[in-house]
Amino acid sequence: MADQLYLENIDEFVTDQNKIVTYKWLSYTLGVHVNQAKQMLYDYVERKRKENSGAQLHVTYLVSGSLVQNGHVCHKVAVVREDKLEAVKSKLAVTASVHVYSIQKAMLKDSGPLFNTDYDILKSNLQNCSKFSAIQCAAAVPRASETSSSEKFEQSNLQVSSETQATSELTANGHGPPTSKQIPHQPKGIMGMFASKAASKSQDTNKETKTEAKEVTNASSASSKAPGKGTVMSNFFGKAAMNKLKVNLDSEQEVKEEKVVEQPLLSVTEPKLAAPAGLKKSSKKAEPVKMQQKEKKKGKRVEFSDDETKETVNMKKKRRRLKLPESDSSEDEVVPDSPGIYEAESPSPPPSASPPPEPATKTEPEPPSVKSLSGENKRKRKRVLKSKTFVDEDGCIVTEKVYESESCTDSEEELKMKTSSTHRPPAVTVKKEPKEERKGPKKGTAALGKANRQVSITGFFQRK
Amino acid sequence: MGYGAGLSGLTSETEQGPPPWPGTHHVCRAGCPEGPHSAVPAVSQQRHLCPSARGDVHQLLPALPAGGAQLQPSVCPHLRHPPPPDEALPGSGVRVKKLCELQPGEKCCVVGTLFKAMPLQPSILREVSEEHNLLPQPPRNKYIHPDDELVLEDELQRIRLEGTIDVSRLVTGTVLAVLGSVRDDGKFLVEDHCFAGLAPQAPAPPLDMDRFVLLVSGLGLGGGGGESLLGTQLLVDVVTGQLGDEGEQCSAAHVSRVILAGNLLSHSTQSRDSINKAKYLTKKTQAASVEAVKMLDEILLQLSASVPVDVMPGEFDPTNYTLPQQPLHPCMFPLATAYSTLQLVTNPYQATIDGVRFLGTAGQNVSDIFRYSSMEDHLEILEWTLRVRHISPTAPDTLGCYPFYKSDPFIFLECPHVYFCGNTPSFGSKIIQGPEDQTVLLVAVPDFSATQTACLVNLRSLACQPISFSGFGAEDDVLGGLGLGP
After folding, report:
1. The domain at B45-51+200-271+285-468 falls in which architecture?
2. What ipTM was estimated for this complex?
């Protein structure tokens, strides 16, 4: 029953929507591992041809193998049409692998459309392009957007320390200390263990060895470049593969609480789940989990930096507060989204000593939001001038314009704030504006400004 | 353009002062049992030969005292003809002399840097010379000519060479030793010559399992070739483990590094419209390289999410023109630089991957030698540069290069295990052995945009295998595209 679902999906794509269904496209669309996608396509072709031999299906295959040419053993990888498949296979001395590349209704004249399909789906999934692939690299941890931007803009200790960590990772990679390199690069298994940003890789290597151990047998047997399998179609989910997947599932639970790059774990376990519906669900689950993981991670970093910078910023805020003769109303912290963060940064320091939690929460997000500015820019690439309205400690309603990078869903919440009142004591406005100007450019979205999720650090508390 | 044009350009132009090795003459003593060159340590042998304008600057190879001097001690022991036993050089009586000490008719050995006077060599001076009213010379494939002459220079003098020496093969900037005698007409009659030979090599630690490094060059993005885009995508898919079945994916997981050796952008992205056209026409147009760099960024993102990548710039890439080319700036790759597995490196590039030393260039050195020498095969030229112990002897004469004057970073101090050059017209690979048990794998990495071929180097066995990618085209020539045709 569950099988039928994905078959129907493919059927719909191919015949009704007249799409070119490549394995990669299917993998991203259904959220399944690439090998699973290939197997699905193969099943579909088989069934369709059994049911209806006149089926209007054109299939392209990927053939790879080796042959001797000009004295060397050359490896060839080619996308071929079905009618040429046998001819090409016969020319290869050793056929390493053959699998379905794509299915489409119409006969393709050349491989251009295949490339376009793949390119389009890839473009829309650039950030997780290796999510469904069979190889995961432990070293490929995306640098936190905050730290990568702050290398350039900020000089705070936190960034320097995480930068040095990143560079030490680099050197480690470059010179390949055998221990740390072997483990990730040995089959680089389907199970990816991503080192946490702050922690070393070592905690993961243990887990990796476990999973890799299972894969060693497979890897060593296939270690020669042209393993020389015969028709490999039936080998897709051979025993070794199932072992891998089982192992992945086990270790997945262990690393459930891991960081951002947990999604490959989830994606790998997906092939194990029989139900494509389940697959779809789990892919969706992967998304929110991934988001939360990212947010949590950012949250961690936020807190990390807070300790170091809170005092200084507090100091600054206190000083500014003293300058101002007038006080504003207490800021409205109960804003369920990023304006809360901008309140924090806003230089609308009430002259009176504000209650500690307020400046605390205000200052907390400041450094990370500053850091995240460019990072967010990288993610969302949208900087908009928005008005933030809040009530500060003295009860004055303050509106300020800030630049922030936002995702589309975030902007919905922002719009609500825009319509808030703009009542503001003029004197305060005058003094505040220059500071706002200074602070404005430094703001960015909340570190946790992921789409339709927790948008601000205060928002997290409010929901609870 | 270099200084060519008949100037004794190398030494006098670029020498910055008196040689800093006062009085370190090196004279062979007759009867010296081991020969002077092998016995004397390098420091005292710092006879300052044509420094050929090299100084120590940025990265690549560690600082060296001076170009020719570094090479000189190693040149002499390798003279192929062992002179008769009672002569000065290793067991022979032939002395190594400086040009100013030559006596006519006396057989001796001279070490120096070559200069090849080539009438066809493009000369900036001739071009701007108004009295000749010459049109700029059309670019040729090769600038060699039967009338080329070789001149040997040391730090003070130069002398014409004749005799058993292959003029067409050699290029300017080569340091060599010649054995022969000077004739009365002032030319040196060469009986034999030899080069510096392979540098010493530290053995690579043995690996217990197969690791691969993928060498690709000449991706040529922005060139408008759709076929090559599919090939590039297939390459990325194989390396990231999406293509192929389980076994292939496991093998691909053993690829521990990908090195992109230059020419990531296509030649056509280098259009100079903005210089030639009027400003109002080009004001709002985007440079062709912008789109190409975006595409490159996406490809690098896919690759670096899965494997460590080293990106070397090449001739057509947006970085400086002179060698050594600086790494591409990370601001061009906002997506890919998020991954620490992406390393933007220089050209030439040297790295130690799993204990195996790699050294390579994006091919400008080899193609420049190709233009000025009769050697036809890029792999052969690559081997020759290794044997001459200099990556790019023609720099800075005909190949743009930073004017190093103190030391030359392009000299091989140590022999690599894998020596490659990118953007060759076809794949080539060879293993050569040196006299001191050196083993080097030479790889000529072909231009991917033309050949759809990359190279896979097995670090354990030091073997190299080409891997080709293809799609299918309207002409149904699948087999031909794969090279499988009749």
Report:
1. 4-Layer Sandwich (3.60)
2. 0.73
